[in-house]
Specification:
Chain B: It catalyses: RX + glutathione = an S-substituted glutathione + a halide anion + H(+). The complex is a heterodimer of chains A (about 230) and B (about 220). By secondary structure, chain A is α+β, with helices and mostly antiparallel strands. Chain A has helices at about 15-25, 45-50, 70-80, 90-120, 120-145, 160-165, 170-180, 190-200, 205, 210-225; strands spanning about 5-10, 35, 60, 65-70. Chain B has a 4-stranded mixed β-sheet with strand order 2-1-3-4, with helices on one face. In chain B, strand 1, helix 1 (about 15-25) and strand 2 form a beta-alpha-beta unit. The chains are: A alpha+beta (about 230), B alpha+beta (about 220).
């Protein structure tokens, strides 16, 4: 059975922050109970577990104090279940690089997609797309350097950056379809494009991300609540 | 024996840079300090931090590490034989420490800017946000001398540089942090008794004057 089956994950299917925790749990073959939160009517459990931010994901392990923030949860799981599919490398400098790029993706790359959504008009969206293209090309360089000719950012196996960026792919595909353009393509980001196909078909990821209907509904809700 | 070369690239008023200074001093790691003029950034900075072009940057044997919390963890993971360890050994306690450090890092600086750069309503909002953050964090000290227990830990090092800015916030916002958060100020005074902190924190009056100058600069 392993260390424990007493893991509960509070989350919501369309959240890629939640999905990344699910991806890691799957990679490490950890059983867990998924508690689906309605973010329009947050449960008592969520509000008491995360009184500071009132956000998902929240990981509750064996009735100990809840663990909050997706990247912190991932490092926690990597430390407790360190012998099964390590997510972060062991070298301190490589760990620092992985953390740096995860932070870049979360604080610079993803917000561009939100800006895209909230920018009205084609001209406005074109400007944001330019910034997105530059950022995607930067991530292409990161992939080439990190992967060192191998399949993933993490090398032979899925690693930290693969998890962080990989779980956003459902949204990327959604945005591409909605706006009729490509985020990754053969000319500007050929290696990343290959990587997206590879990781999209990874067994542990398939289970972790939600279908396009749920994304469409979530997007519609965002358009109303945060225009 | 491998000769280590550690360089800290920083700007004197940066609370983020002060964190790294404290960390290096606490562990007794010899380092070279390089002051960067943020109003006239060097090409050196853009080579060691091409993505953000910001300080602090730690350059260890010619390899740069960026982002202050990242640097703190790097220091803790590299010099494992030097105490104190900034993070506890228990994964749960580590996750809790990281949460509070991350919370302070994401919110305090941005909210505090509203106090000294905003006017009217925005200043009040900034003051309330800052007090909310400080009170939440204050609740985590408990009976211990420091967030890290008997020694400075990740949360202590992340937060204490902002103590240099308390005078600025209080003067602009017309409030007293000691009145609102007495345990937090008591904690800060305990931190200042540590040589690593006393050496690394800029003078609060200098910070206040610097912020006044910056406000004039941005008003042009």
């Amino acid at each position: 059975m392993g260390k424990s089956c007493e893991i509960k994950l509070l989350g919501t299917a369309p959240s890629h922050f939640v999905n990344r925790v699910q991806f890691v749990l799957n990679l490490k073959s950890i059983e867990y109970e998924f508690i689906d939160e309605n973010l329009n009517c947050k449960s008592e459990l969520l509000l008491t577990s995360n009184p500071v931010h009132k956000k998902v994901p929240v990981l509750i392990h064996a009735n100990k104090p809840p663990i909050l923030e997706s990247l912190i949860i991932i490092e926690y799981l990597d430390e407790v279940y360190h012998d099964i599919h390590p997510i972060l490398p062991s070298d301190p400098l490589e760990r620092a690089h992985n953390r740096f790029w995860a932070n870049y993706i979360d604080t610079k790359y993803f917000p561009l997609f939100e800006e895209l959504r909230r920018t009205p008009g084609i001209e406005g969206k074109k400007e944001v797309k330019k910034q997105l293209d530059e950022a995607s090309e930067l991530l292409e360089e990161v992939f080439v350097k990190s992967s060192n000719g191998k399949a993933y950012f993490g090398g032979d196996d899925v690693g930290y950056i693969d998890v962080v960026l990989g779980c956003f792919l459902a949204w990327i595909k959604f945005v591409e379809k909605l706006n009729k353009f490509k985020i990754f393509d053969e000319v500007r980001t050929p290696k990343l494009l290959e990587w997206t196909n590879r990781i999209w078909s990874h067994e542990a990821l398939k289970d972790a991300i939600c279908g396009s209907e749920a994304l469409t509904n979530h997007y519609a809700m965002l358009q109303i609540k945060k225009p | 024996m491998v000769k280590e070369k550690v360089v800290l690239v920083n700007f004197w008023s940066s609370p983020f840079g002060s964190r790294v200074k404290i960390a290096l001093e606490e562990k007794g790691i010899p380092y070279e300090y390089k002051e960067e003029d943020l109003f006239n950034k060097s090409s050196f900075l853009s080579t060691i931090n091409p993505v953000h072009n910001k300080v602090p940057v730690l350059v260890h044997n010619q390899k740069p590490v960026c982002e202050s919390l990242n640097i703190l963890e790097y220091i803790d993971e590299t010099w494992t034989d030097l105490s104190p360890r900034f993070l506890p050994s228990d994964p749960h306690q580590r996750a809790l420490a990281r949460f509070w450090a991350d919370f302070i890092d994401k919110e305090l600086y941005e909210s505090s800017k509203k106090i000294y750069r905003g006017i009217g309503e925005e200043q009040v909002i900034g003051k309330n946000e800052v007090l909310r953050i400080l009170k939440l964090v204050e609740g985590e000290i408990g009976d211990k001398p420091f967030f890290g227990g008997d020694n400075l830990g990740l949360v202590d090092i992340t937060l204490i540089p902002f103590y240099s800015r308390f005078y600025t916030w209080e003067t602009f916002g017309k409030f007293s942090i000691e009145e609102e958060c007495p345990n937090l100020v008591a904690w800060a005074k305990r931190c200042l008794q540590k040589e690593s902190v006393a050496k690394s924190l800029p003078d609060p009056i200098k910070i206040y004057e610097f912020i006044l100058d910056l406000n004039k600069y941005f008003a042009k």
